Amino acid sequence: MGAYILRRILLMIPTLFGIMAISFAVIQFAPGGPVEQVIARLTNQGGSDRLGGGGGDASGSNVDVAGDVSSKYRGAQGLDPEFIKKLEKQFGFDKPPLERFGMMLWNYARFDFGDSYFRDISVLDLILEKMPVSISIGLWITLLSYLISIPLGIRKAVKDGSTFDVWTSGVVIVGYAIPGFLFGIMLMVLFAGGSFWDWFPLRGLTSDNWDQLSWSGKIVDYFWHMTLPLTALVLSAFATTTLLTKNSFLEEIRKQYVVTARAKGLSERKVLYGHVFRNAMLIVIAGFPGAFISAFFTGSLLIENIFSLDGLGLLGFRSVVERDYPVVFANLYIFSLLGLFVGLLSDLIYTWVDPRIDFERRDV
Length: 364
Hints:
Layout: H1 2-28, H2 34-44, H3 60-70, H4 81-91, H5 97-109, H6 123-158, H7 163-177, H8 180-191, H9 215-253, H10 256-263, H11 268-280, H12 282-286, H13 288-299, H14 301-306, H15 312-322, H16 325-353
Helix pairs in contact: 1-16, 3-4, 6-9, 6-13, 6-16, 7-9, 8-9, 9-11, 13-16, 15-16
């Protein structure tokens, strides 16, 4: 097993390199980079009128230089070319792309993500600041989806083909088909002061008077704010696990050892939870880390935006819009690295749940 783990860890290096290289190459062709963002803010605020050296009174040579520099950026006409060069140096665009990519990889290997372009804070501190909100959402989604999915999937397997199985399958499929963000908007319209009832808060994770509340009041206030976002996310999150649990149990129930256990007079509960459960839940339990990572990093992105929850999803969205590349690439690097390690962790959980599985004998 040690050799297998070592091979998997070594394979993470080229995988991570490929992810970062492709993303970096795509960014080079994306319009509206950080320099353009600063230029747009200055011109919208009349900043060009306050900057010297770039106006029409400049000499002919300066105009030529300004034309060469400003032609690279939309809206840079009339700005001081030296100011544009300072912006390029500030954001690191005065270096060739390959050099910038190499420096980024070297820094990221040491977990040095630098500072945000547009926030006066280091990228790592910014991510750590937003992480509790996303962890909270991810934990609750994963916990609730498993608490719903496993009992429901087992019940559906036992009642396979019955009326209960048919109508619950319909509910699960419809819930899975509705996008979480669309259901979240519907919940806001119905229950957050839209066109109907005003029962739940529209945004935020806590109320403004959070610090003044008692411990019990803080708990109630927290779940009051989390009700709509979690409902929107859990609706689609539990569908896959429910059907996976049902199919796993159905496959095990039809095997010979279950027939033998029933023939010995064991109760149905003893057969299900004493014999079938361990084998049927192998794939479900092993998928737990992946389900948490999925809910933590991807599932809550749109929901955080809809309900204004200040987590990693909202941070990533705003960073992409603002072209805050250090935050964007740091999020991508950290999430990709965690995803690769979670894949390895899932394999190790397989071997822990079922010792008969030996990945070391397989070719990686």
